[in-house]
Amino acid sequence: MIDKIILLCLSLLLKFLDENSDFFEGTKSDKKTFLSDSSLPKFLELYLLEVKQDKFMSDLSDTTNFLNNGIVSSSNSLVKSISLFLSYSLAMKIDSLPWDFDLNPLEKRIEILSQTISGKTELGELLVDNIACSNLHVINNQFKSLANNFSENKSVVIQSAKVLSPELKQKVREYFHGVDKFCYPIFSVQPNLLGGLRVIVDGNTVDSSYANMINNLKV
After folding, report:
1. What region, left, alpha or beta, does residue 31 occupy, with left being phi > 0 and alpha being psi -120 to 50 degrees?
2. Are strands 197-201 and 186-189 parallel, antiparallel or unpaired?
3. CA 29 to CA 74: how far, in whole Å?
4. Alpha carbon distance 87, 81 (integer Å)
5. Which residues share a beta bridge with 159?
6. Which residues contact 215 (CB under 8 A, 6 or more apart)?
7. pLDDT (tens digit per residue) in 31-80
8. Rounded CA Rg of the chain
9. Domain layout of the chain by residue ranges
10. Cα–Cα distances in angstroms (integers) from residue 134 to residues 73, 111, 170, in the given order
11. Tens digits of residue pLDDT in 114-137
């Protein structure tokens, strides 16, 4: 799924630049004018607004290599932009899905996703179709794997005795986003867990400060 998202983003960017061939020659104000009429996702607009032509070409080359060999440069601003969208903006929407989302029939999953994610764009349609046909465990691990290329904390697992509410999941994700914007917490239910919560960072159970923080977020 990650490859499909990246390929679509590349296609959208190249189409836009082909239609606006002098985009990189303009001032920042000119670029804003070009982008005001675009149908690009917001995160790609922000990327184009900041990137220079030579950096774009470098990112384009590195992104192509990533699609071929799975290795991405930590300085690749394009893949960073895509990963940030997936690991925060889209992840927050996924966190809002009902706990039994995966148990629903395909048609119902598509209906739920269409209400949560705008399916009226090429990217929206791709996301709805691919998430509906997969499961949230797989999707979360794919997004986390991409984010790990840029994150300081490669693994953050929030274990709880019961399923956390969508609102609390979003608050937890927002908290860790403030600590490391590429951090991708994974939520895991452990019914036998004593104390209600356990936070594991890079394989190590951390002290109670994180668990207390999460408990405070419930209030």
Report:
1. alpha
2. unpaired
3. 29
4. 10
5. 188, 198
6. 196, 197
7. 999 999 898 999 999 999 999 999 999 999 999 999 999 999 999 999 99
8. 19
9. 2-66, 151-219
10. 28, 15, 21
11. 999 876 789 999 999 999 999 999
Side chain identity at residue 196, one-letter code:
G
Q: For Cα atoms 129, 133, 136, give the angle at the middle one, nearest 5 degrees.
A: 105
Its sign, for the CA torsion 169, 174, 178, 183, is positive
Buried b / exposed e along 177-201 (16+ C-beta atoms within 10 A): beeebbbbbebeeeeeeeeebbbbb
Strand partners, 156: 201
Q: Is 87 helix (H, G, I), strand (E, B) or coil?
A: helix
Long-range CB contact pairs, 59-66, < 8 A, 24+? 60/10, 63/6, 63/10, 66/6
| Residue 110 to residue 33: CA distance in whole angstroms | 35
